[in-house]
Every structure is written in structure tokens, then in C-alpha cells.
UniProtKB/TrEMBL annotation:
<feature type="region of interest" description="Disordered">
    <location>
        <begin position="258"/>
        <end position="279"/>
    </location>
</feature>
<feature type="region of interest" description="Disordered">
    <location>
        <begin position="46"/>
        <end position="67"/>
    </location>
</feature>
<protein>
    <recommendedName>
        <fullName>Apextrin C-terminal domain-containing protein</fullName>
    </recommendedName>
</protein>
<dbReference type="InterPro" id="IPR031569">
    <property type="entry name" value="ApeC"/>
</dbReference>
<dbReference type="Pfam" id="PF16977">
    <property type="entry name" value="ApeC"/>
</dbReference>
<feature type="domain" description="Apextrin C-terminal">
    <location>
        <begin position="73"/>
        <end position="267"/>
    </location>
</feature>
<feature type="compositionally biased region" description="Pro residues">
    <location>
        <begin position="269"/>
        <end position="278"/>
    </location>
</feature>
<feature type="domain" description="Apextrin C-terminal">
    <location>
        <begin position="316"/>
        <end position="507"/>
    </location>
</feature>
Amino acid sequence: MCDILLSTYQLSLFVLSAFLITGSVSLRYRTADRIANEEIRGRSWQAAHPESRSLNSAPSRGRPKAATADQCWPKENFALLQPPGGCPEQNWGTGSITHTLRRNSTVPTDLVSGVVHGVHLTLDFCAHDANQSCLGTPTPTFPAGAYCIYQYSGIVTSRETSSHLLNHLCPPGFKWSWLAIDDVNLRNKNAHNGQLPQGEFFSFSTVQYFCCREDGDANQEIVLPTKKDFILFPMNSTGLCQKVKGMTAIKSQIFYDTSDDSSKANGPPSEPDFPPPQYSVDVPKDYWGQGLRVSICYYTSQGGSSGGPVVPPTCWPNEDFALFQSAKGCPSGDPWSPGYVQHTEGHNSKVPAQIKGSVTPGGLILGYCSHDAETQTTESSPNAAGRCTASNTATFQPGSYCVFVGYINSTNIFDKSCPQDFAYNWFVIDDVDANNHNAKNGTVPEGEYYDFSTVYYACCRDDGFPSTPISLPNKEAFVLMPSETDRKCQAVIGMNYEYLDVFFDSELIESNLIPLPPQPTIQLDYVIDQPKDQWGAGMHIKVCHYTPIA
């Protein structure tokens, strides 16, 4: 595929060179036929996907509105990802790019204006023209630092264009870089509309052009407009969000679930940050493989009213619940207490290294973390250091995930002891009878613990999409469980996740999950080929292990 693309680039360069000799070629220049074809393709997409929002995010029209002095960006050509609240000012141009990928792409929609519909990922952009009007004195240049923006200009270029020209198209102090996204060929509906970052747009791949700089310290504050939220990219070398005076930075990721052979970053001396590419394939080579995570830095004004997200919560929801314990331990704080359950199982049981536990000659031991709402320090707690307030305490948001019942509440009714908007469920582990040494200690999930079997009580919800990130404390590792409905890990802002498997080598007849339709259930699979009524030997419990994005 790469040989074909390179041949295409070389041919394009030959054709474009004639234009470049006589003058600039507009990026928005299109023949009548191409305009007609793109408009037909756009209408066809919208007809086939009426539930999606319009891809035609057209450039602003009419006389540009002047920005106030504190909104004035440098008088340069550049582009940024668009936040949900819109571009920094109405006179910025807008556009959108749609990628046809695999089904597991994710975009943090509370930080980025974008959407995932099945295999299609659409992102919106803001384009700033050097000639845009601005009241007052604009910022003269971009400050020194360690960050990236998109390249934007009116000149059609390719990677074969001389690096001197490509660097010249970046604002002063920046150098050119590029990122290739290998879109999926089958039923491809790639599309692009409006004013966009510089790049190369093919039916089955997309090349994005960046401008990056590393002439300053990411930890030293720089000055940029703070009236509205905006998005930059961190440098690969530091992995840090550039500090901006008066702004809080939130780091997150966009995951492109790409095809399997040509997602690549290049363009020395710098490139956007992805730490390093985390591929779905087992043995990625260089930067080629399936799946590409690109880090972003979202900036929101401290105490501002931009409509953007608040600082990520530091306290967990003030609810009773329990989780599998990460190998890194339980989250810190008084509400959390650890516990362990020992199951007597066969010799083939397995516990992933990321989960607290071990496989023993007679079974397995698993660690848990229980959260007690009564011990959580709140605004009413006397002399409580590090109080949990309404502004820093998370709530369990709509999504597709499960937790364990932490405590039976004052109703003494099992199925009314889940956090709000979760549904109660339970499953049975049929432990081995012979030489049984089941045991538990510490604080463990609510359930029924017998000599020869264990019943776990679970709480699940599937009122949202796993690809839509939810907000939870994101400074420490933790574990959630996927729901049976979607069988995917719930995306969480600021967190990487791994989809893992805990295997109980249980007995033949009683490892069972009994759902209470239409409630969601935790995800489990069976080892035997044709289990009947969910009864069978062996039990796989799927778990999602989350770690902070570096």
C-alpha cells in the first residue's frame, strides 16, 4: 500500500510543481466536477445516516467580526481542533474530516467537537487566517515552548514538497511534521468539508500536517488568549501539556481504530505525542500497526464561563460500591478499604498481572477495593483535610460498565443497594468441593460466601455508549467491568485502559450468571463450546484496567 501511495505522491508533486512555479495554489481550489462529486457524496452520507449531525461545517460567511484584544491570536496561518463550545472567535473558519475506521475508535466528546457513529469518526476544526481582523494588538508571535498545532495555508503541498517550503508554511519558531492515518478500505466514506488543516486526503488514508516547536520548557507558563477554551498537542519528547497562564490543561486521547498496515508518524525533528503508539496487534514494528492513540491538551480558563469541562474530579462518587483491586493498590483516601477472597479452583485459573491477586496450587486469590460513602470526607465533615465537595466529587455518568455492590443499604434489600441508575445482578462461582479452602478477609463485595461456592452481587448500567468518555478521578489506577450489552471497556477521560480476562477454572455445573432482563450484566464467556443456559465448566470474567495517561 505504501508503494502505491508514494507513487501517488510523486505524481502529485510533478503536477503541482507547475503551479508552485507560477504562484500559490489555493487549498480550497476545486474543479466543478470535484465540487459536484463532493456535494453528492455529502448528501449520500447524510441520507444513509440521518441520525448523524451534518458533516458540512461550512466556513463562516459575511463580514468577519472583530475580536477583542484579549481574544487576539498571533497573526499567523494555523489550525486547531475545535472544542465543543466552538472556535475561539466567530471569524475563524471551520471544517470537518470524517475517517472510516474500525468500530472501536473513541473521541473525548466533552473536550473535542467530534462524534463516532459506528465505523466513522468525524472531527471538527478551527482555521485561523493571518489576515483576520482583530481589535487591539494581537499576540505578536507564538511563545517559545513545547507544543504542536495544525499547519494551515492556501498552498497545496505533499510530503514530497521541499522541507524548506513546508517549514516556511509554519508560524515562526515551528517546524513541520506529519501523521498518516490508515483508514479502512471496506465501504469507505472518508469525507472532508470546509476550511481544514493542511494535509493529504485520499479515499483510504489521511495525512495530517503539524507545526511543532520545542524551544522552551513545557512546565514554564506561556501567554495565549484565555477568553475561550482551545486545544493544543503535546510534544512526543516530553509527553507534557504546555502550561498556559490562566488556563488549566486536561490531557486526553483520540483513538483511531485504524486498518492494519500503515498508520505512521514521521517528519523530524518533532511530531505529535502518542506515548508510544499502542497497537491492537501483538507485535507492532516501528510505528506501523492497527490502532493509533493521539494525545491532546484541552485548555479551559480557571474560573471562567466558557462552557467547557471543569477540572477532573479528585473524589469518587459518594456511593457504596466495590471494584476489583488494581495491582497498583486501591485508590487513596479514607473511603477505600481492601479485602481478599480465596477461591478453590482447578489448576488452570488465571489472573492478569494488572489485577491484584495470584494463582495458587489450589485455586486463586483476588483483591478488592470497597468504597464506603459514610467515611468519605465532605463539606460537613469536621476538620477534614482534602474535603470532597460538590465541585470535585464525581458522579457515575451514563455509560456501559459495571461495579460490585459495596454494602447493603438501610433498606436491607439487595437489589436496591446499587448506586443510582445502576441495575442489580448477581453471578455464582462454583468452587471445587475437594480440599476446599475458600476464605475471605478485609472488606469484600457484598455477596454470599459458602464453602463450595461464591455469589457476587453486581451493579451494571448500559444507558450510554462505551466510546463516550465519562469523568472519574484519573490520577490513580482502578478497575471497572464491561457490560454484556456492549462488551467493550468504557472510555474514561484522561485514562488508558486494557481489556483483560480473569479465568476461574471452576466445576462443571454451577458457574452461572442469572440476568434480570432487560438489565445489563457483567461480561463473561465460557470455555466449553456449547454451554446451555449459561451453565458450564470454567468462567471468564472480563475486566477493564485503567491507568493515567502519562
